[in-house]
């Protein structure tokens, strides 16, 4: 197989449990790029949450942000852009207020069941920036939100993602309620405490395939790495989908290959097997 592109999820995949790219993984990816392979980082994060990883590791690569809603090349040129309209986003945000009240009534949880925020390109707008879950997320992705609502959006700007940081014991019910009320949108669990709402059809897989079509290359030449449920479609769509050793069992079942975990150079190990040569 003539491999031409590598796509990698970030959290639990590209970075280890110390939030770093291991030396072997960095070297393997840089070697692949020197051999002419394209490399794109794929994440639920916003561009500003991905850029430090690119800069600190010298990748000089492109990115797919917001779980597939936005793709940009290494120079920041937008290659793919698919968000909700502001009208759609307002409808979801209004419904989330009703769902919040319902969850508070149905559950024994006495506090706010989830923290709401949304993204438009690199703007991150949080309903309540002082919410501890937002504060923790800001520290994790090394970027800052702005407090407010849809009035903060530029006229006509799309909303690429609405994010609900939810109490884990309420996550199943929140996901179920959102899917029932918004069947035309893509509601996906992105982490153990996180549900994302995106425009219909927006996935990491579709963004990856859109880029490949743009380049005029066969999807069979792609390698994709992931560990969580929102990576499954991307792994299935790639020429070789690689699940990390720390991946959820459903992700491993969807993959063509299972490699070592993110603390033990899983990406580097898989690239050595697939690319050979200088690896």
What's the gist of this structure?
This protein is of the alpha/beta class. Helix content is 35%, strand content 22%.
Characterise this structure.
The protein has 279 residues and is an alpha/beta fold. The protein has 2 domains: 5-81 and 202-275, HAD superfamily/HAD-like (Rossmann fold, 3-Layer(aba) Sandwich); 86-198, Hypothetical Protein, Haloacid Dehalogenase-like Hydrolase, Chain: A, domain 2 (2-Layer Sandwich), CATH 3.30.1240.10. It contains 9 helices and 14 strands. It has helices spanning 23-34, 47-57, 86-106, 132-141, 171-181, 204-215, 232-237, 249-254, 266-275, and strands spanning 5-9, 38-42, 62-65, 70-72, 78-81, 114-120, 123-126, 146-147, 161-166, 186-191, 194-198, 222-226, 240-243, 257-258. The strands form 2 sheets. An 8-stranded mixed beta sheet has the order 5-4-3-2-1-12-13-14, sandwiched between helices. A 6-stranded mixed beta sheet has the order 8-7-6-9-11-10, covered by helices on one side. α1 runs parallel beside α9 (266-275). It is globular and about 60 Å long. The model has no long low-confidence stretch (mean pLDDT 93).
SSE pattern, N- to C-terminal:
EHEHEEEHEEHEEHEEHEHEHEH
**What fraction of residues sit in β-strands?**
15-25%
CATH fold assignment of the largest domain? Rossmann fold
CATH-assigned homologous superfamily of the largest domain = HAD superfamily/HAD-like
How many independent structural domains?
2
Secondary structural class: alpha/beta
Instruction: Report mean pLDDT, rounded to a whole number.
Output: 93
Number of beta strands: 14
**Which strand order spans the largest sheet, edge to edge or round the barrel?**
5-4-3-2-1-12-13-14
CATH-level-2 architecture of the largest domain? 3-Layer(aba) Sandwich
Number of helices: 9
């Amino acid at each position: 197989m003539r491999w031409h592109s590598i796509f990698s999820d970030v959290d639990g995949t590209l970075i280890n449990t110390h939030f770093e790219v291991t030396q072997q993984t960095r070297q393997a990816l840089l070697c692949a790029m020197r051999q002419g392979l394209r490399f794109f980082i794929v994440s639920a994060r916003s561009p500003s949450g991905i850029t430090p990883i690119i800069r600190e590791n010298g990748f000089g690569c492109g990115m797919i942000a917001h779980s597939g809603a936005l793709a940009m090349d290494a120079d920041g040129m937008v290659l793919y852009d698919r968000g909700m309209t502001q009208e759609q986003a307002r409808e979801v945000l209004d419904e989330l207020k009703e769902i919040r009240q319902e969850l508070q009534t149905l559950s024994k949880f006495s506090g706010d069941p989830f923290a709401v925020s949304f993204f438009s390109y690199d703007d991150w707008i949080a309903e309540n920036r002082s919410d501890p879950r937002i504060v923790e997320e800001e520290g994790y992705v090394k970027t800052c939100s702005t407090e407010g609502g849809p009035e903060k959006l530029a006229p006509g700007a799309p909303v690429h993602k609405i994010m609900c940081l939810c109490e884990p014991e309420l996550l199943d019910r929140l996901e179920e309620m959102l899917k029932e009320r918004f069947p035309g949108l893509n509601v996906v669990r992105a982490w153990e405490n996180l549900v994302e709402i995106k425009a219909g059809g927006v996935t990491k897989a579709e963004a990856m395939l859109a880029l490949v079509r743009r380049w005029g290359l066969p999807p069979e030449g792609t390698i994709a790495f992931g560990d969580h449920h929102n990576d499954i479609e991307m792994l299935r769509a790639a020429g070789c989908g690689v699940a990390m050793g720390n991946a959820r069992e459903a992700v491993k079942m969807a993959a063509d290959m299972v490699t070592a975990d993110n603390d033990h150079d899983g990406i580097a190990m898989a690239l050595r097997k697939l690319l050979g040569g200088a690896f």
